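Exercise: predict the structure of this protein bound to 2'-O-acetyl adenosine-5-diphosphoribose.
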Amino acid sequence: MLTGAGISAESGIPTFRGVNGLWNGWRIEEVASPRAFERDPLLVWRFYSERRAGAKGKEPHAGHHALADLEAALGERMFLCTQNVDHLHERAGSRRVTHMHGRLFQSRCSHPACTLAPFDDDRVYHERESLPNCPSCGSLVRPHICWFGEVPFELERIETALLACDLCLVVGTSGVVYPAAGFVEVARARGARTVYVGPEEPGNATAFDELVHGPASVRLPEVVATLSR
Ligand code: OAD
Ligand code: ZN
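Solution:
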């Protein structure tokens, strides 16, 4: 299973397309990048502080719950990978979620050689003086997010899962951001059935055996019900 911003839309977390890829007039690529953090860490922390504050009280919907219930039934036979950095899959009860683009409520040291592990963090920052430093090496702490120009997390585990899967279910993603947009082709090439759930055709629509049109909160529980039978 692969989920994208669309699965969180009905929980009140706007998609990238929903905000036209903009924040306060900045292109999100200009805020979510290593260069942006080097140039202006406060700007980057203000962006993620807003994301943290915005995601905090949000609740999962029936689509997230359907995936959590499916995991409860299938156990390790199910692999859930999300491009989302929010925690709605976990809030719904999913236990094993691979966050390929990182996690909004975690931070880590910005120094590439530092051994401090990513840690849970829901703090927000709006002033330069308060920006956090690593307790181990003193470098600035950064959000644990895969920024533009960085390599997503856990790609090896994802590839292993794709090469073993019988069904590749993709939910609420535009199908244009790689490498995630290419996962369905890998699964298909190894013989998996491929299904997409969302209101619009994704950019990689031709790679799917079935396109299930509609919002994730309604269509995903229906699709999952047919799988659990
Ligand atoms: P996008 O914002 O590009 O696309 C959102 C998708 O969700 C669209 O295809 C919509 O049709 C679909 N959608 C909207 N409402 C929906 C609903 N109620 N139910 C189901 N689907 C719905 O977001 P992503 O494709 O997830 O990367 O973006 C992929 C990556 O691009 C993000 O993870 C982010 C961004 O750059 C990083 O931050 C590294
Ligand atoms: Zn450090």
